[in-house]
TrEMBL record:
Naturally occurring in which organism (per UniProt): Stieleria neptunia
Keywords: ATP-binding, Cell membrane, Hydrolase, Membrane, Nucleotide-binding, Transmembrane, Transmembrane helix
InterPro entries found in the cross-reference section: ABC3_permease_C (IPR003838), MacB_PCD (IPR025857), Macrolide_Exporter_MacB (IPR050250)
Occurrences of domain ABC3 transporter permease C-terminal (ranges): 300-429
E.C. numbers: 3.6.3.-
Stated name of the protein: Macrolide export ATP-binding/permease protein MacB
């Protein structure tokens, strides 16, 4: 133990003789270790947010969505495309499939809302009363849609939609243009975190730019055909009866079986595959696999930084061996063995990499506060510079990344320090003593 302590003390003293060089060598390991922890933390944050969004869909839910097919003989020469779920599909699902607790339909389209000289390009959602709880929405003022509102021209505005139309005014009881008709505002929802696209199955969604009307009102007042004017002043459009049906089952064990029945039922009555059946619990498994692959990729990228740092360590240690050739010869002449020389130079290398690794871990643990500080600073300078999804992201330190980064940093020092140490140990003592 005493011999080991003397070796470590000697190694530290030798490094302190060249503080700048030793610091630059440790800097490469510091950057690599910090990079491992930071990249994994950001990846864990993104993955955690995605899994939260999937869980919000409900483990017992099955999402059936209308999807515009790539090609169709009926739509090939038409500017108005007809596709998607039908009201008959909703009726068939409810009537024929056992074990279903709820089947909630929804219709949505882009629509410009106007009041006086202000307008908002919003997503108009025709929905039922259950839509509020299903999407974790909360009422800020007023009320949500009720059964007695069916067929009436009433609307609930999302937070940013209300702000764009009324700024800081209370929108309750006010009239707004929805398309070509007036609607009365009966409520406003609280801000809700935007959701990112999940696995290519569900699109990104900003709930704060929505406007909600009764599904029956959507059908009566707007209809299934929605037309839009293109840049060439030509009308294009779509005919869609339902945009989505959210099916809830009584038992999570029946989700896969029910989804398969729904898919076969839709396939029987649809000529083209203009629908998608999404099972949230399958998305969770997919998200877990993606998370593992993403973390492996990030660790490889960060490992490259440690590799570069290790090459720097080896380069400096080789230069140190050359500079200390005479010292090595003296130590060998007074009885030091080759293993003692190897031990000394490996100790110096491990001190460098260990110091860089520990400092890198400390900096890596500051990932969350630094990320929030940079985000706040950028927002203060330019409020619209960052996309909304950045404000929902929070880095999550993975404990395993700390151990892995330290292991890699020390392993890098051991691997890249072994050659310089062996080169020093294999020197001929007589030739080393003659070195000037």
């Amino acid at each position: 133990m005493n011999a080991l302590l003397r070796t470590i003390t000697t190694g530290v003293k030798s490094l302190l003789l060249q503080k700048m060089r030793a610091g630059l060598a440790a800097l490469g390991i510091f950057i690599g270790t910090t990079t491992v922890i930071w990249l994994v933390a950001m990846g864990e944050g993104v993955s955690h947010r995605a899994q939260e969004q999937i869980l919000e869909l409900g483990a017992k839910n099955i999402i059936v969505r209308s999807v515009e097919p790539n090609s169709s003989q009926d739509n090939a020469n038409s500017r108005v495309k007809k596709f998607g779920l039908l009201r008959k599909d909703h009726e068939r699902i409810v009537a024929t499939i056992p074990g279903i607790r709820d089947a909630i339909p929804m219709r949505e389209t882009r629509m410009e809302l106007r009041v006086e000289n202000r307008s908002a390009d919003s997503k108009l959602v025709g929905c039922s009363e259950e839509h509020l709880q299903m999407n974790q929405l909360e009422i800020a003022r007023g009320r949500w849609l009720t059964p007695r509102d069916r067929g009436k021209k009433v609307v609930v505005l999302a937070d940013q939609t209300a702000t764009r139309l009324f700024r800081h005014q209370n929108p309750l009881g006010k009239s707004i243009w929805v398309g070509s008709e007036f609607y009365i505002v009966i409520g406003q929802t609280k801000p809700r975190t935007a959701s990112a696209a999940i696995g290519g199955s569900l699109d990104a969604r900003d709930y704060n730019l929505d406007a909600y009307i009764p599904l029956q009102t959507f059908r009566d007042r707007i209809g299934d055909r929605v037309l839009t004017r293109s840049s060439g002043q030509q009308f294009t459009g779509e005919i869609v009866e339902l945009s989505q049906i959210t099916v809830s089952v009584n038992d999570v064990d029946n989700v896969d079986e029910t989804a398969a029945i729904i898919e076969s039922l839709l396939k029987k009555f649809h000529k083209t595959e203009d629908y998608a059946v999404v099972v949230p619990k399958e998305l969770l498994a997919q998200a877990a696999r993606t998370r593992a692959m993403f973390n492996i990729l990030l660790v490889i990228i960060a490992g490259i930084s440690l590799l570069v740092g290790g090459i720097g360590i080896m380069n400096i240690m080789l230069a140190t061996v050359t500079e200390r050739t005479r010292e090595i010869g003296i130590r060998r002449a007074i009885g030091a063995k080759r293993r003692d020389i190897i031990q000394q130079f490996l100790t110096e290398t491990l001190v460098l990499t260990g110091t860089g690794g520990l400092l890198g871990v400390l900096c890596g643990l500051m990932c969350g506060p630094l990320f929030r500080g940079i985000r706040a600073a950028v927002t203060a300078i330019s409020p619209d510079a960052l996309p909304p999804i950045i404000y929902t992201l929070e880095p999550r330190i993975a404990p395993w990344s700390i151990g892995l980064s330290l292991f890699i940093s020390l392993g890098t020092g051991l691997i890249f320090g072994l050659y310089p140490a062996r080169r020093a140990a294999m020197m001929n003592p007589i030739e080393a003593l003659r070195h000037e």
